[in-house]
Amino acid sequence: MVIHFTASWCGPCRFIEPVIKQFAAKFTDVTFAKIDIDELRSVAKEWKVEAVPTFVFVKQGTEVGKVVGANKEELEKKIEEQRS
User: Fold this and answer.
1) Is 13 marked active-site?
2) Which parts of the sequence belong to the Thioredoxin domain (predicted)?
3) Which of 3, 74, 83, 84 is deepest in the core (most CB within 10 A)?
4) φ and ψ at 32, to 5 degrees?
């Protein structure tokens, strides 16, 4: 699972949004969830989100990785790594 922490006012978040949609279509075996940090502050705090966008990778309920920032290549690489 990839949890995408975002905010409506965040420019890089808006930039990466279409990329996430492409990844969701490409990696159909991965679940993508989107959380607005302004709407769910407690969830963002629980996952220790300090900047947006932040992508948290979760396997069987445990965090296994994190990517901070709108870096398409790094994000795709991390998704590939976690799928294997």
Assistant:
1) yes
2) 1-84
3) 3
4) -115, 130
Domain count, the chain: 1
Residue for token pair 């607005």: 36
C-alpha distances in Å from residue 67, one per residue of 3, 18, 56: 10, 17, 7
Which entry of 2, 13, 16, 79 is annotated as an active-site residue? 13
The whole domain housing 34 covers 2-83
Token duo for residue 55: 């992508």
Catalytic one among 2, 3, 7, 10?
A: 10
| CATH number of the domain that residue 37 is part of | 3.40.30.10
**What digits encode the pLDDT tens for the residues 22-38?**
999 999 999 999 999 99
Model's pTM, two decimal places? 0.94
Q: Which two tokens stand for residue 37?
A: 């940090």
Asked if 46 and 35 count as a contact pair (C-beta separation under 8 A), the reply is no
